[in-house]
Write a structure and sequence with these properties.
It contains eight helices and no strands. The protein is an all-alpha fold. It is elongated, with a radius of gyration of 24 Å.
Length: 130
């Protein structure tokens, strides 16, 4: 798992002890020290977070980090399903291996089975080139 240096910067700005930071983000003491000493970006982030904490009277929360790829893809899949875009939804579901054709069932059979479960509007959206 990659080290969350943004979280490490936040904890540093809050004044957390190195042991706590290391445990929270999964880095070694030497990695943390190198980052604090040699990385201008890390130091700037600590400064920015520190200013945010001071500005909010110590009540500030760490801003949310970027979503994981899995969360992003699942959110997009849900968005496409809600919008009725079954073509994209089925493509994503197949790529994520969220469904697998039944044993002995070929791709054509699986597609025909899926099309049979769709209503006319879903079939039209699925067949439309986009």
């Amino acid at each position: 798992m990659p080290i969350d240096w943004c979280r490490a910067a936040w904890l540093t700005a809050e004044g957390a002890p190195p042991r706590e930071i290391m445990a929270a983000v999964g880095c070694s003491r030497s990695q943390l020290r190198r980052r604090q000493a040699a990385c201008r970006l890390f130091r700037a982030l600590v400064e920015q977070y520190g200013a945010e904490i001071v500005r909010n009277g110590g009540e500030a929360r760490m801003p949310p980090g970027p979503r994981s790829l899995e969360e992003t893809v699942r959110a997009k899949l849900e968005e496409e399903m809600e919008a009725g875009n079954t073509r994209v939804a089925l493509w994503l579901a197949e790529r994520l291996r969220l469904f697998v054709p039944a044993a002995g069932e070929g791709t054509v059979d699986a597609l025909e089975r899926l099309l049979a479960t769709m209503n006319d509007q879903e079939r039209e959206a699925f067949s439309r080139p986009e």
